[in-house]
């Protein structure tokens, strides 16, 4: 059997690609040659989350469906305290580390820089979350972020390769604009979005989304509200209101159930076929200079609404659209994105302290909170709690465990072990035991 050190770099890359996220990061500390091989091997994280409060931060690295590394960072007496968890929200089961760094935001960004500041590393979505609408507070936190990450960092430029940048509903558009210009590689970034969830109790998963594209500076920012109720009674008024306020761009409403196709059927006009997958009904309201395009496919129904003079800018996009449901469609969306958004409302249950994606105010520019929205959030949390209790009773009867906590025979990732830290020689030994062989020019692992 060949030794690890005897393998050519390409063979090492094939092995490295099969390691979990933290084992790959650990490889950078084994030797200079292994670090160089790791740094030139493609690595993809579907989503990374940074949530910020005055005296604490949250970093979550999603590595797959139901797989995530979670770090809660708070101020301590002699620096910052880090609670590290894997696939769990239970602080009682966290590994606790202490850092001499005194500012949680700076430490959180340093961790992210160490994990993702590599040309071969790509992040699907980077999520930024503030807990206040206060602009000065956001500016102060942004300065701390930019001191560590981005084109103006003190340690030198280190922009991340990110496909999509999402911020929560409280984040100022000025902050979003500054982030996308400074933090991320503009040659890679494809989408900028500000989103929030309206807590409702009709459903436990997203039922409808309403979004508007708005130009800010040189960037088109998508403003997206996620609803957990059908909202068909008032969605048309809101869509028209948003479309009339949008000088360039359009407003889109998407429904998650195939049964919602009745909304398309209610438009009593002839349809035209846009392509082999989509039929469209076009409704013009000249009195208010608005055009509505109702779309139907095998996946469901969605509607675009805009000022008439904006329609021609997007007609080619509309004609080529085959499914307009985005992450609401299990069939057409990325499996991770579908899983993520189906479970996003559960933050109010699993991590209520870190659920600032939930909209609690009618005004995205103020910290005032709506009593009805707060009450809905509490009712929804209770529904999730009841659902979990019912699920646990069922699991107990079946004598099976399908919770987020790990099974006893599962191993934690490097750096997230409950017991002592895995040494580098153990890591190399485990890699060697993967039985790498050469056979007719192919690497068999």
UniProtKB/TrEMBL annotation:
InterPro entries: F-box_dom. It holds the Pfam family F-box. Residues 384-406 are annotated as: Disordered. Residues 4-33 form the F-box domain. Residues 391-404 have a biased composition (Basic residues). This is F-box domain-containing protein. It comes from Caenorhabditis remanei.
């Amino acid at each position: 059997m060949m030794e690890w050190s005897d393998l050519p770099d390409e063979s090492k890359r094939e092995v490295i690609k099969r390691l979990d996220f933290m084992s790959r990061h650990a490889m950078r500390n084994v030797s200079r040659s292994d670090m160089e091989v790791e740094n030139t091997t493609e690595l993809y994280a579907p989503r990374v989350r940074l949530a910020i409060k005055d005296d604490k931060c949250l970093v979550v690295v999603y590595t797959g469906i139901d797989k995530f590394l979670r770090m809660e960072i708070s101020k301590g007496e002699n620096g910052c305290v880090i609670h590290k968890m894997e696939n769990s929200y239970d602080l009682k089961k966290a590994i606790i580390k202490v850092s001499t760094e005194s500012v949680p935001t700076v430490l959180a960004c340093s961790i992210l820089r160490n994990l993702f500041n590599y040309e071969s590393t790509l992040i699907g979505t980077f999520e930024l979350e503030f807990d206040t609408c206060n602009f000065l507070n956001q500016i102060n936190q942004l300065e701390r972020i930019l001191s560590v990450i981005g084109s103006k960092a003190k340690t030198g430029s280190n922009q991340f390769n990110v496909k999509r940048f999402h911020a929560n509903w409280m984040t100022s558009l000025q902050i979003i604009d500054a982030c996308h210009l400074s933090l991320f590689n503009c040659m890679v970034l494809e989408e900028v979005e500000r989103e929030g969830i309206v807590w409702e109790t009709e459903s436990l998963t997203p039922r409808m989304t309403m979004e508007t594209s708005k130009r800010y500076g040189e960037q088109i920012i998508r403003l997206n509200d996620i609803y957990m109720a059908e909202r068909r009674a008032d969605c048309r008024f809101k869509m028209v209101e948003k479309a009339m306020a949008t000088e360039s761009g359009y407003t889109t409403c998407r429904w998650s159930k195939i049964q919602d196709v009745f909304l398309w059927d209610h438009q009593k006009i002839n349809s035209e076929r846009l392509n082999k997958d989509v039929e469209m009904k076009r409704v013009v309201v000249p009195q208010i200079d608005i055009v509505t395009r109702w779309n139907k496919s095998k996946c469901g129904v969605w509607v675009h609404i805009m000022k008439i003079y904006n329609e021609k800018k997007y007609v080619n996009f509309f004609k080529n659209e085959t499914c307009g449901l985005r992450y609401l469609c299990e069939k057409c969306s990325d499996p991770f994105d579908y899983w993520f958004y189906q479970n996003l409302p559960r933050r109010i249950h699993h991590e209520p302290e870190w659920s600032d994606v939930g909209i609690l105010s009618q005004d995205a520019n103020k910290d005032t909170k709506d009593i009805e929205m707060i009450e809905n959030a509490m009712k929804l949390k209770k529904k999730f709690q009841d659902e979990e209790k019912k699920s646990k009773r069922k699991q107990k009867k079946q004598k099976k465990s399908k919770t987020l906590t790990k099974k006893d025979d599962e191993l934690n990732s490097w750096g997230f072990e409950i017991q002592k830290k895995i040494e580098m020689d153990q890591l190399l030994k485990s890699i060697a035991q993967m039985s790498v062989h050469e056979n007719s020019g192919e690497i068999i692992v």
